[in-house]
Amino acid sequence: MPLRYLRELTAPERNERNNFHLGIALCFVAGATNAGGFLAVGQYTSHMTGILSGLADNWVLGNSTLIMAAMASVLMFMAGAITSTLLINWARRRGSRSLYAEPLMLEALLLLCFGLLGGQLDSHSSKLISLTMLLLCFIMGLQNAIITKISKAVIRTTHLTGLITDISIELGRLFYWNRNPDTPDHIKVLCDRKHLKVQSSLVMAFFCGAVLGAYGFSHLGFSSTIILALILALLSIGPLIDHF
């Protein structure tokens, strides 16, 4: 993979092509991390909807242990997103060309730690809170904030509800029958095929990553995430070389 291409993927100057290609890669990583993480901790960590719903349920049921675990997970996801935002804005203020590469490299290092030390973290987890799950929530928050900042909130990679909704909307437009052929184009219901392609590709990348992540974790255990760490390191290497 040419170094010039890697520089463009995480460079400060953005275009739709770079955002799309980076989004595909990060969706793949998120899917693999989420599916593999479920096998590790029995909980999906890429989206907060289910965790907050569980928090509400356990609040009503009075299950204090699960309430604390859910609150800690949400706070760690937020901490990851806050960390990403601080790193990007700090690098932008310094005029650094590695403003997006630095949080990606941090995510790579954390995934590497997860791959090498995940078993030890799991063994040191208390009955109240899983340290492994907290690390995964932090990683997912970190990544989601990165791509949100890069794409100006157009692309999300760690949860698919919005993506699948957008796909459904475009399919609804595609199947709509404009009965009068003389209807002006600005009134016709038309499908944005480019948008449909982008959103469908992101969903497929997440799904493929999830399949491979589940397969890798079931056969290799925690060490399967080392490959994901290498992918992220490769994505961030170009601007970091320029920086140093």
From TrEMBL:
The chain crosses the membrane at residues 20-45, 65-87, 99-117, 129-147, 198-216, 222-241. This is YoaK family protein. Pfam families: DUF1275. It comes from Iodobacter arcticus. Keywords: Membrane, Transmembrane, Transmembrane helix.
